[in-house]
Amino acid sequence: MTDFRTRTPDEVADLSSRLRTLDWSWQLDEIPAIAERFGWDVVSTDEDWAMLDTGFGLASGKVFADDGEVERIQVGLSTIGPDTSETRALVQQAYTAMTARLAADLGAPSAEITDDPRQTRWSGIDSTLILEELDRSLTLTLASNDWLDLFDEAGRLSQQGRL
């Protein structure tokens, strides 16, 4: 039996709702107060990032910033399981259940990316919520739309061999 744990789809839906409704300035110096509201621990910070314990260990949450302006908050939705076919199957099952639960709350996704890593996205006015299936774990990211546009453009350029 694989030692692999995930948040429940209901917990993910609650977390998604709370992330999407954050009213903040997207400044890194607000992260300690946000972490406290979510019951997370700030493990370490630097000028352009913060590491959080969101319930699955010391680096189960990450905040990435540029000049103090947050680009994205990434929250682990599971432990990182061993590199086995059983873990991959559990990750896929959890992703499918979480996607269905989020779609029930948030409506149809704005994008579904089937490349590796698989993502389902729900766009808002200023930010996008991203559920991501990795080989051995799952994450939920709240990303600024400006950052996500640049990230997606870099991916397109890379696929074209132009980056």
Which quaternary structure do these chains form? Answer: single chain
Mean pLDDT: 94
Shape: globular
Helix content: 25-40%
First-residue to last-residue Cα separation: 42 Å
Count of individual beta strands: 8
Order of helices and strands: HHEEEEHEEEEH
Strand content: 25-35%
Structural class: alpha+beta
Largest sheet: 8 strands, antiparallel
**How is the largest sheet built, in terms of strand order?**
1-2-3-4-8-7-6-5
The Rg value, from CA coordinates, equals: 16 Å
> Number of helical segments?
4
Question: pLDDT below 50 for ≥5 consecutive residues: which ranges?
Answer: none
What does this structure look like?
There is one protein chain. By secondary structure, the chain is α+β, with helices and mostly antiparallel strands. Helices cover 35% and strands 29% of the residues. It has 4 helices and 8 strands; from the N terminus they run ααββββαββββα. It has helices spanning 9-20, 31-38, 85-106, 145-159, and strands at residues 41-46, 49-53, 61-66, 69-76, 111-113, 118-123, 127-133, 138-144. It has an 8-stranded antiparallel beta sheet with strand order 1-2-3-4-8-7-6-5. The chain is globular, with a radius of gyration of 16 Å. It starts with 8 loop residues before the first helix and ends with a helix.
